[in-house]
Amino acid sequence: MTSTSCVVLISLLVQLSGAICPQGCLCISDILNCGSSGLDRFPNPLPFTTSVLDLSHNRLTWLAAGNFYGVPRLHTLRMSHNRISLLSPGAFHNISRLRYLDLSSNKLQVVGKYHFQDLPALEVLLLYNNRLTRVESNTLMGLGSLRKVYFSFNQITDFPFFSIRKHSHPNLVTLDLSSNRLFRLPVDDIVVLPFAVQKGLFLHNNSLECDCSMYRMFWHWEQKGYPSVKDYKDDYKCLMYGEPQISINFLRSSHYFENCTIGKMISLISPKADKIVYEGEQVRLDCTGTLNGEDLSYSWVTPHQENISQLIQNGTLRLNQDGSLEILAAQSIDSGVYQCTAVDNTRMVNESREVNLTVVAQCMEEPFNTGYTTLMGCVVTLVLILMYLYLTPCRCGCCKPPPPSPSISTSGEDRCTLASIFAAPSTDRLKSKSQSDRHVVFLEPLLMGKNGQPFVVEQPTIEWDTENFTIIRERNDSE
Question: Which range is the signal sequence, renumbered to this chain (predicted)?
Fold first, then answer.
């Protein structure tokens, strides 16, 4: 066996063993801790049992494709405080179960789709304190499990808010863009973000331009008590006339925005409307509000996250010139919240409105209530039975009166009535009955005399009640 073959065999054994801990690292069960180890090269190979990997506080400068080969169980990766400035395409290949990725405090300048496209299970992404100046529009595309993403303390001047929608990021609750270089916010894209994202959108410590649309949006969020505004109220500043020297805290200096009337502030997001229709009906959803300019544009977002921004008529939906949306034949699948946005392109003011549509199935109304009909039938039947019992003469043999007896008086009794059948017997009847059931028993046992001749001993006569098995009285023959 040649020396080359031995080296290959040893390498394979090392990779398959999974028990070899990289030099300078600490292996604890499924945790591999290589933090603060002075690494300037990626450790290789990694134990295949690794689920938590810490490479923070080292001198790594880039990530190459295939670095994470052989660790399919990895779900937490910490690589903060390195010198990483480049992420190669496919750098995170083979770790599709990763849920937590920390790349903060590095030297990244641009991030795009190909960087994170292999991480569908990613929930938390930390990219703060880098040198990012641009975030491409498809950077977060495909990350449907994402809950929190942090871009703070970078140099970002523009962010693709339009790429975040409820259907693409249903779990997103935190988007931190604080401490960047955002100047002019695309308010029309921000106000149509999912409400959970708006509530967790952090934009403080940016050099924002002072204008009414921006002020109305933050004023509305403050009234709603969103933590992203309420907890950082003193850190929201804007530049008057775009001059860096004139910076004001606009949430505490409302007098600078006196021209932005309260009415306009409230109309930024109109009250939610509810509409209930039957299946098959034609429905018209209005996008009416306070905007009445000539240069208005409208867009709708359906419950299925379909964006409609052009005048269309596709046989199912129709967007009219006045901004109203028509559903030609409503079906149950059309139920949900429809969001309309009207934009005044001249004054750069926009307004959004929501309509909650409920489509119910049509059903034939029953002429009679089944339960009520059944109850009435039972009542009528019971009345007829009672009438029959009380009004019909008794014809059964058991009800015929017995022949008259001297000991039992039948005067004043009608045995053919229902009352006489179930009534309790009278005291006189019980008394006469007890007398008729009396029997006299003579006990005359034979006894032997002195000469062997039998003789009869006189015994008392006993009156015996055979019904109650009691002795009524005793008497002698002489009585």
Answer: 1-19
- Among residues of the chain, what percentage have pLDDT more than 90? 32
Beta bridge partners of 124: 100, 148
User: Which backbone phi and psi does 25 adopt, to 5 degrees?
Assistant: -105, 165
Question: Residues in the chain, how many?
Answer: 479
User: What are the backbone angles phi and psi of residue 205, rounded to the nearest 5°?
Assistant: 60, 45
User: Rounded distance, CA 39 to CA 479, Å?
Assistant: 137
- CATH class of this structure's domain 273-360: mainly beta
Give CA separation, 446 vs 30, 443, 456, 457, 459, in Å: 112, 10, 6, 7, 11
CA separation for the pair 199, 220 (Å, rounded): 11
The predicted model gives 100-119 an average pLDDT of 92
CA 315 to chain centre: 34
pLDDT digits (tens, 9 = 90+) for 376-396: 888 888 888 888 777 776 655
SS3 158: coil
Kindly state the average pLDDT of the residues 441-463.
52
Please state the domain extents for the chain: 17-266, 273-360, 433-479
Q: Which token pair is 405?
A: 């007896």
**CATH hierarchy code of domain 17-266:** 3.80.10.10
Q: Residues 6 or more apart from 358 whose CB is under 8 A from it? A: 274, 275, 276, 277, 335
Residue 250 in tokens: 């606009």
**CB-based burial of residue 140 (10 Å sphere; 0-12 exposed, 13-18 middle, 19+ buried)?**
buried
pLDDT of residue 236: 93
From residue 223, alpha-carbon distances to 178, 273, 355, 462 in Å are 20, 20, 22, 108
CA 173 from centroid of its chain's CA atoms: 16
Residue 37 phi/psi, 5° resolution? Answer: -105, 5
446 contact partners, CB below 8 Å, separation of at least 6:
454, 456
